[in-house]
Fold:
Amino acid sequence: MRKSFRVQNVKCGGCANTIKEALMEEFSEVDVDLMQEPRVITLEIKDEEAEKSFRKKIRSLGYPMEDEELGVFTKGGLKAKSFISCAIGKMNEN
Structure:
């Protein structure tokens, strides 16, 4: 089933590129809508385990879900991590 998630800290095409690259193997087609705020990521989620895996991977890149409760330090750490993920995505753009 295709499912959409509202994700924070996604700023640009570099971020979208990093997200797509990181998720492609497990989820194949990943869409990142940069026209909405917070950004919306849509992908095929087969079951609860796949959703848990997605949430873990996306957060490890510095992009938490909108529905997550985050403390100030966690928020700051994830934002810094997202800047690094964004820069990597920009360098890897074709």
